[in-house]
Specification:
- This protein is an alpha/beta fold and 211 residues long.
- It is built from eight helices and seven strands, in the order H-H-H-H-H-E-E-E-E-E-H-H-E-E-H.
- A five-stranded mixed beta sheet has the order 5-4-1-6-7. It has a two-stranded antiparallel sheet with strand order 2-3.
- The longest helix has 12 residues.
- It is elongated, with a radius of gyration of 27 Å.
């Protein structure tokens, strides 16, 4: 860069046997930071998708637009890093389960979930929503777990839903009784509360699954 923009000065200094009057690397970095916003520099060093997902500045908090619990539920799916095997033949791998989680954005409480062997789909997501709208006491009783309604008081319909722009971008979600908000392109991490549950470690289990 010095040879391109300070060629005349470099030649003159060489002829006159003196130090060239050119900016130092430290001075160059100072004026770069002073004249060009840091976000603009980062944007030029990466792709648009990577910038929106990982490098853009985040303002405010996740609960800025949620007034009370129940204002907004976040819904997302993830494939667990475990393999389900047959009860009768452990060499027969059935696949990896997909878990849908529904989290209340304001209170951070898990309000619904659904586990299936299907890939992420509107059908599976619908089951997770049904679970979030119904009594958890009855849900736990199906698995022999006794709880009181006050221990998991989550059986309400939210004002709106926030989800990824995946399987919910189709006609069927329009039949929902609540508004559906899709995360913008390259920003699937916007449902940040439910993303925290996705990062939780899965304990090792030797329990067998029926085919």
């Amino acid at each position: 860069m010095l040879k391109e923009y300070y060629a005349d000065e470099l030649r003159s200094a060489e002829k006159e046997n003196r130090e060239p009057e050119i900016p130092s690397l430290r001075s160059f970095r100072y004026w770069i930071k002073k004249l060009i916003p840091e976000a603009e520099l980062i944007r030029k060093q990466t792709t648009a998708g990577d910038f929106e997902r990982n490098r853009r500045g985040l303002r405010g908090a996740a609960t800025d637009h949620t007034e009370v619990p129940g204002s907004c539920f976040e819904l997302d799916a993830t494939v667990l890093d475990v393999h389900i095997v047959s009860e009768f033949n452990r060499n027969h791998v059935l696949g990896r389960p997909t878990v849908y989680c529904v989290v209340d954005k304001e209170s951070r409480m898990m309000v619904g979930l659904h586990v299936s062997m299907e890939y992420a789909s509107w059908r599976a997501g619908r089951q997770a929503l049904v679970n979030s709208f119904t009594s958890k006491k009855a849900y736990c009783a199906r698995f022999g777990i006794e709880i009181e309604e006050s221990e998991w008081p989550c059986h309400h319909i939210p004002q709106r839903l926030l989800c990824d722009r995946g399987e919910f971008i189709c006609n069927k979600p329009e039949e929902l009784a609540v508004p559906l908000i899709g995360a913008s392109e390259h920003c699937s991490s916007l449902p940040c509360r439910v993303e925290r549950y996705r990062r939780a470690p899965i304990p090792n289990s030797e329990r067998k699954a029926c085919p």
